[in-house]
């Protein structure tokens, strides 16, 4: 059954361990208003530790994933109220992207259509991203006279080589889902009518993995990017030891099923979680 946030800017369903969350302002191409930002944060917070949610997918209703920040409600109306209102709106937007970057469960962006500007914040916040081949990605800020803020420039530098990031930010030209996949903005592009099935397939694989190991791994991949090799080596030892304190049985069970029981091969798939003692 589809649930909605109080003002309807966010919709979601939970099915088979997956929370299918959607930007839900299709008439406004899912651009992010302060209301949407507040409601998305509340929905993400409410879903984060639910036992029936193992993976979260972020999609968009209608023809857009998200047309970026709402130029009227997020920029013009907010700046008319002064600096305090602007900072508040920024904190709310950046806040839910940050929550999503460090989310407890693995997250997948399912980019069905337009993805512009501020949309790069949640795009990067999701651990994996799949796009429709014909989805359109753009740093359109330059076309209306600002720099790509709200992290969008950083996302371009994180995900793209320098020349591509610079061209993308300066030219204001869009790339389609296929090019976005070639460039590394998303993992894969598939025809729109296969997008949900492909994402469901990926989510199903993730649901079979040890959830403590998934959280430790996704955080580690983000954290080590900013570390020297030696710092990363040290961090990863400590991160694994911290994960062990939440789940001391997981790795032992994984080893037991391989070495003693010979019931699976880690090189070919995950151990059977259902046999693990709590
Ligand atoms: N901010 C505010 N309103 C937006 C919006 C945004 N980012 N994106 C779309 N909308 C609104 C339009 O103003 C229009 O409102 P209206 O029906 O009240 O007139 C409605 O959404 C539909 O948009 P429209 O432009 O008619 O849809 P389209 O399918 O022809 O074009 C886009 C889609 C995404 C190409 C186009 O809406 C667009 O360029 N949006 C702005 C993208 C952008 O620069 N975002 C970066 C912000 S950081």
TrEMBL record:
Example of a GO biological process term: isoprenoid catabolic process
Keywords from the UniProt entry: Lyase
Transmembrane segments annotated in the record for this chain: none
Keyword Membrane: no
InterPro entries associated with the record: ClpP/crotonase-like_dom_sf, Enoyl-CoA_hydra/iso, Enoyl-CoA_Hydratase/Isomerase
Family matches, as Pfam families: ECH_1
SUPFAM superfamilies per record: ClpP/crotonase
GO MF annotation list: lyase activity
Keyword Transferase (UniProt): no
Family according to the record: Belongs to the enoyl-CoA hydratase/isomerase family.
NCBIfam families: PRK09120.1
Name of this protein: p-hydroxycinnamoyl CoA hydratase/lyase
Organism: Sphingomonas hengshuiensis
